[in-house]
Write a structure and sequence with these properties.
heterotrimer, A: alpha/beta, 6-stranded mixed beta sheet, 4-stranded antiparallel beta sheet, 10 helices, 10 strands, 36% helix, B: mainly alpha, MetI-like fold, globular
């Protein structure tokens, strides 16, 4: 069976000044699947996630080596349009951070900055995005109220709706549930299961059970290296590397 | 499944922009928008404009320095620097430009004002930071802000109507005196001293105080032996900045000090400060006379800039230390 | 040395006393001027121009002059000051030498006495650029004087905007500038406005620099090149030359009322900051 690869990284290394945070990472992310990146704190999984939408460049004195290909197009090039890249590859952060605006304006933010001005078009995009994020039922009647008044779980879904509104193809998630209560987490995981039908999802999580629950593939990072990458079931039941086994059985981390 | 490093020829592929390969989002074409001016993206243009705005400060200080010095320094050379600073005779019509009396005048008024404003100011700062209940502390803070907002002319006016007669009736002389200047000036620099001292005291880590109290010391002992010493550099900064303000103050001082060009021999003696001299005579000065006033400005400028640099450059060092 | 309970009580009393002295100073100044000045403030006083060099009439021309001058200064200083703050906080690199120098010169500028600005404004705007004693000379000088305050408060306001806003905005594909004006500046607005309000207070009370650059004509200023006498300058002249103590008190009282209003507006604006969170 031909597996379609959405994202490829080739020998990706990241340096913070002289410190080498990532060591030649090679990974293939399959389309319309959930790929989880696990590992102890500071192992580089978040750093790697941010190489996929070039968000590492926001931090000073960071150098990235190697190349990342999305749909076979290299993204680390001099004339790469980073704006278009980030529209194509969306990101959800750990802390649900909604803009100090109304719910509507939050979701409409992305389309607006990319040039959409037509009110009807925006209305449609906002409604579709909120529906896709399973939030429409709860907020559809109060779109103009401040987003800050929503609960943590609702805010995180709003953030997802905001990302969906720019019509990405890939959604990167950096520990999206770590600030949420168990019920909100469960709802979020359910949402991820639905979203993967239309999007490619890469999720960083420190919660192994979560990775086991929702992902199709899992990669284990340790000290900036990708130790093992495999189908989720295999990596948890039959890890090939001793370090992976130690981590999964809780011997460290 | 194993990770494979395929030799798939991607490394050799010619680099192409991601926009040209992937369909444009929402069907909108961004390429024109990104480059409004040839070679510069809109973002780059904005950054340049903002940078120029920031550069205004550097430009301002340079231009101010140039013009003040150009107008004032030649006269200092003409008269001779020691004659200018040390001679006591200020008589423009005869071409005598010695500012010693006014230098002493500034010194006198400033020092006496610091004498009473510093203890009161620091004490108030301690009160606000350590002793007062939160609401009172906040209220006092708002009142100090109000005190800081009152313009110098209003202070001068109050001094003229209330303080000067008071001194005249109770201490003698005409009332227009060093004392009157020091009283009003002190009131004016209180907010500066209070605010900066309070910030310094509040910045002292809580652990110091807790450590002291845990050893059985009283609150006051902790304040005196632990908190104040730790806040020392901040309090010194407050005093220096207060002094700088006092030296530069003009309107209030000119209204209450009598403006005689003599060296004051007592606290009720009238006096003229360097700043007063400038504002009084600029209205009708010309030629060398005007240059001499600018020269006085040069002295003031150098003084306050050096004072400021001392505070700012040591503040930077102090900040770095405190953040560890 | 053992601390005594009585000793402590006396100390506490002393501290409270000193705090009371501060309050007393403030209140005595305000009440004295209010008591002797309020009676003189009438509709006529505000609407009538001064006559006989201020011995009679009102202070309408000085009120207009003050407003005009302040407006000119703000028009110049606010865009420049906020732009500079945005550059320093959003665009400059962390250890940029340029930013360090700008910050240092801004701090230094804020410590320069007003009389020096007056001298500079005189020799540069009035004489060198040939603008004469005028609103524009005074306004330009005043603008330089309030620039550091506006930038500093804007910088603090921008710094307090959570880092996540910027991250999320950029991750959605916004450019840096879009991020700045859509997601950074709006929440920083209350702080910026507070700085502007405080600068208005400074502009109203400024005297030394205005005397040397805007002149002291009592006529109603009709254009930028007209000279003007502000309320503060008027108070100075009325008092120093003993022209009319009655009107001096009324002028001083009006100035204080304006300052109190401005101070109150500034605290409101800061509270507005808290309310939007």
């Amino acid at each position: 069976m031909e597996r379609k690869i959405k994202i490829k990284s080739r020998d990706v290394s990241v340096f913070y000044k002289d410190f080498k945070a990532l060591h030649e990472i090679n990974i293939n992310i399959e389309v319309n699947k959930v790929t989880a990146l696990i590992g102890p704190s500071g192992c580089g999984k978040s750093t790697f996630l941010r190489t996929l939408n070039r968000l590492n460049e926001l931090i000073e004195d960071t150098t990235t080596q190697g190349q990342v290909y999305i749909d076979e197009h290299p993204i680390y090039n001099k004339d790469t349009d980073v704006v278009a890249l980030r529209q194509r590859v969306g990101m959800v952060f750990q802390k649900p951070s909604v803009f100090p605006m109304s719910i509507y304006e939050n979701v409409a933010y992305g389309p607006r900055i990319h040039g959409i001005k037509n009110r009807e078009q925006l209305d449609e995009i906002v409604e579709n995005s909120l529906k896709a994020a399973n939030l429409w039922a709860e907020v559809g009647n109060r779109l103009n109220s401040p987003a800050a008044r929503l609960s943590g779980g609702q805010q995180q879904r709003l953030v997802i709706a905001r990302v969906l509104a720019v019509e990405p193809q890939v959604i990167l998630m950096d520990e999206p549930a770590s600030a949420l209560d168990p019920i909100s987490t469960a709802r979020l995981e359910e949402l991820i299961g639905e979203l993967k039908k239309d999007y490619t999802i890469v999720i960083v999580t420190h919660n192994m059970q979560q990775a086991a629950r929702i992902s199709d593939y899992t990669g284990f990072f340790l000290n900036g290296e990708l130790v093992e990458f495999s189908i989720t079931d295999e990596i948890f039941v039959n890890p090939r590397d001793k370090r992976t086994e130690d981590y999964i059985t809780g011997r460290f981390g | 499944m194993e990770q494979q490093k395929e030799d798939d020829g991607y490394m050799n592929k010619k680099a192409e922009s991601i926009t040209r390969m992937i369909d444009i989002p929402y069907g909108l074409d961004h390429s024109k928008k990104r480059y409004p001016v040839r070679g510069f993206t809109r973002d780059k243009l904005v950054e340049m404009i903002l940078m120029l705005s920031a550069a205004i400060f550097i430009l301002a200080i340079i231009v101010i320095s140039i013009f003040i010095f150009a107008r004032g320094v030649p006269l200092i050379y003409k008269v001779g620097i020691s004659d200018f600073l040390l001679a006591t005779e200020w008589n423009p019509t005869k071409g005598m430009f010695g500012i010693a009396t006014m230098f002493v005048g500034t010194l006198a008024v400033t020092m006496v004002s610091l004498l009473w404003a510093v203890p009161l100011g620091v004490a108030t700062a301690i009160f606000m930071a350590e002793l007062a209940p939160a609401k009172i502390g906040r209220l006092l803070g708002r009142l100090v802000e109000l005190l800081a907002g009152i313009p110098s002319v209003v202070y001068g006016f109050f001094g003229l109507i209330v303080i000067v007669p008071f001194i005249r009736e109770n201490l003698g002389g005409s009332g227009l005196s060093v004392m009157a200047g020091a009283v009003i000036l002190g009131i004016m620099i209180l907010p500066t001293i209070i605010n900066i001292s309070r910030d310094a005291i509040v910045a002292v880590p809580l652990e110091y105080k807790e450590g002291s109290l845990a050893l059985g010391a009283t609150h006051y002992q902790s304040i005196a032996r632990v908190i104040l010493p730790a806040a020392r550099s901040g309090i010194i900064t407050a005093v220096i900045l207060g002094m700088g303000r006092a030296i530069g103050e003009t309107m209030a001082v000119v209204m209450v000090t009598g403006n005689s060009t003599i060296i004051p021999n007592s606290i009720i003696s009238p006096v003229r400060t360097m700043t007063s001299n400038i504002v009084l005579e600029m209205g009708y000065a010309s030629g060398d006379h005007q240059s001499a006033l600018f020269a006085t400005g040069v002295v003031l400028f150098i003084f306050t800039v050096i004072l400021n640099l001392i505070v700012n450059l040591s503040l930077k060092a102090g900040k770095n230390y405190a953040s560890n | 040395m053992r601390a005594t309970k009585n000793g402590d009580k006396i100390l506490t009393g002393l501290f409270w006393l000193m705090a009371l002295v501060i309050v007393g100073i403030l209140f005595s100044i305000i009440t004295y001027i209010a008591v002797r000045g309020l009676p003189g403030i009438s509709l006529d006083f505000i609407m009538q121009p001064p006559s006989r060099a201020g011995k009679e009439g009102g202070i309408s021309t000085t009120i207009v002059s003050t407003l005009y001058l302040t407006a000119v200064a703000l028009l110049l200083a606010v865009p420049l000051g906020v732009a500079a703050a945005v550059y320093l906080e959003e665009y400059s690199k962390a250890n940029s030498k340029f930013a360090w120098v700008v910050n240092l010169t801004a701090e230094t500028l804020s410590g320069v006495p007003s009389i020096i600005f007056g001298l500079f404004g005189f020799v540069f705007f009035v004489i060198f650029l040939g603008l004469g004693w005028s609103i524009i000379s005074g306004g330009l000088t005043l603008a330089i004087m309030i620039l550091p305050t506006i930038t500093r408060t804007a910088q603090e306001a921008i710094l307090s905007v959570p880092r996540e806003y910027r991250e999320n905005s950029l991750a959605l594909g916004a450019s840096k500038w879009q991020t700045v004006y859509r997601v950074v500046i709006p929440p920083a607005l209350p702080g910026i406005v507070t700085g502007i309000i405080l600068s208005i207070g400074r502009a109203i009370g400024e005297t030394a620099a205005i005397i040397l650059t805007a002149g002291s004509s009592l006529n109603m200023p009709l254009s930028l090149s007209d000279p003007a006498r502000t309320m503060s300058v008027h108070l100075y002249i009325l008092a120093m030359e003993g022209i009319s103590m009655e009107r001096a008190f009324a002028t001083a009282c009006l100035i204080i009322i304006l300052i109190i209003i401005i101070n109150y507006l500034a605290t409101l604006s800061l509270k507005g900051l808290a309310a939007t969170k």
